């Protein structure tokens, strides 16, 4: 598992964009983690899946509600990272009304999640390999804080925990 002080491994993740910008088309766009994190302070919260109970009722809404407070701590971006495809993450972001506050990043094949050592095998429950629930604070691609939830827990990866860690 990745630890504090280590550089994030490079991987390709995807984000569904509803508005085209220079270099980014409408729809799923691929991004290299190393390029996205360069020179930025980012709060990343990983979770098992889009539209799941705890993730939808508490995890994402907490970060949307605490957006201003987190940004006031010098954070450039907040990412929600899940082993789902970009279409699902885009739809979930719309449903959660993230409105650009939280980037809904798709790790569809689990490439980044596996390189981080944060995968969670839920195949016995019909969900395949997913991500553990965690909070990571990254500065210029280097992990500054990492808190991984215990099985079935939601105590150290919420927005309040991010504010304390910042």
From TrEMBL:
Taxon lineage: Bacteria, Pseudomonadati, Pseudomonadota, Betaproteobacteria, Burkholderiales
Annotated protein name in UniProt: Glutathione-dependent peroxiredoxin
Residue stretches making up the Thioredoxin domain: 2-166
Alphabetical list of PANTHER family matching this protein: PEROXIREDOXIN, PEROXIREDOXIN-5, MITOCHONDRIAL
Origin species: Polynucleobacter victoriensis
CDD domains: PRX5_like (cd03013)
Family listed: Belongs to the peroxiredoxin family. Prx5 subfamily.
GO CC entries: cytoplasm
Entry-linked Pfam families: Redoxin (PF08534)
EC id: 1.11.1.27
Gene Ontology BP term (one): hydrogen peroxide catabolic process
């Amino acid at each position: 598992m990745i630890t504090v002080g280590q550089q994030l491994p490079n991987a390709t993740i995807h984000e569904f964009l509803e508005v085209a910008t220079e270099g980014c088309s409408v729809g799923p766009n691929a991004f290299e983690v190393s390029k996205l994190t360069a020179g930025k302070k980012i709060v990343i919260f990983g979770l098992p899946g889009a539209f799941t109970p705890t993730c939808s009722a508490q995890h994402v809404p907490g970060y949307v509600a605490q957006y201003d407070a987190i940004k006031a701590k010098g954070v450039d971006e907040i990412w929600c990272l899940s082993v789902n495809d970009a279409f699902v993450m885009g739809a979930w972001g719309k449903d959660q009304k993230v409105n650009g506050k939280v980037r809904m990043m798709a790790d569809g094949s689990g490439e980044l999640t596996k390189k981080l050592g944060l995968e969670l095998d839920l195949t016995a429950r019909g969900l395949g390999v997913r991500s553990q629930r965690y909070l990571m604070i990254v500065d210029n691609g280097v992990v500054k804080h990492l808190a991984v939830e215990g099985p079935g827990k939601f105590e150290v990866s919420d927005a309040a925990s991010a504010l304390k860690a910042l």
